[in-house]
Structure to design on (219 residues):
């Protein structure tokens, strides 16, 4: 079963995989500035990820029907490798926490229960801004340097577009102000039509609310 706690539609979406009603209530209050999607099992999270991708996943370890969050890390990463994952547990030993943070299918953070709300808030904010898509951009840029890819090659243009759109998401998320197309074009040193296209892409993917950029409806 999926439950949805909506905030402003332009807020970041967090998929919370948790079956404890007390923890659900805690997250509902502590993360009320985000759009929260709750599921009680990791298997349900996989189904939800097939429908839509969130901006961050908060994954508990001990879940309904005996499921364990760590057992599903690799499958979640396969579907949503660019989505930051924060593991939460009161039962994982140090060795298990290190395992959850190691290797190709690892989480970005592990938080212990009872969760410190200030720490949770800081981790979520950092993960949204610096993990996931931002990491993907940095990896692509590093690969381009290693492979000496020229600026006019398609691979380079893709990375530049991804980097630009990631920065636009961070700026526009939670903002009620309409983007200044001309100012953004000057800052990123691209044509106005390029910024228009970026914003249209973000709205179409649900990463920016259409109210922030209503011109996308005419595209």
């Amino acid at each position: 079963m999926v439950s949805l706690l909506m905030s402003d539609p332009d807020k970041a979406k967090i998929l919370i995989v948790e079956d404890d009603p007390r923890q659900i209530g805690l997250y509902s209050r502590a993360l009320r500035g985000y759009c929260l999607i709750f599921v009680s099992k990791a298997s349900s999270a996989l189904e939800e990820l097939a429908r839509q991708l969130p901006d961050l996943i908060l994954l508990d370890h001990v879940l309904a029907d005996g499921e364990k969050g760590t057992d599903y890390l690799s499958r979640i990463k396969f579907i949503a490798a660019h989505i930051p994952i924060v593991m939460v547990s009161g039962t994982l030993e140090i060795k298990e926490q290190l395992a959850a943070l190691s290797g190709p299918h690892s989480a970005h953070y592990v938080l212990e229960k009872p969760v410190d709300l200030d720490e949770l808030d800081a981790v979520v904010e950092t993960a949204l801004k610096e993990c996931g898509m931002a990491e993907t951009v940095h990896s692509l840029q590093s690969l381009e340097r290693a492979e000496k890819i020229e600026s006019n090659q398609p691979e380079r243009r893709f990375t530049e577009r991804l980097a630009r759109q990631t920065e636009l998401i961070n700026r526009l998320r939670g903002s009620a102000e309409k983007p200044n197309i001309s100012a953004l074009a000057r800052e990123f040193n691209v044509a106005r039509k390029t910024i228009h296209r970026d914003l249209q892409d973000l709205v179409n993917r649900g990463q920016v609310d259409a109210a922030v950029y209503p011109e996308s409806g005419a595209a």
Observations:
- The longest strand covers residues 13-17.
- The beta strands are 2-5, 13-17, 35-39, 56-60, 85-89, 109-112.
- The two ends are 36 Å apart (CA to CA).
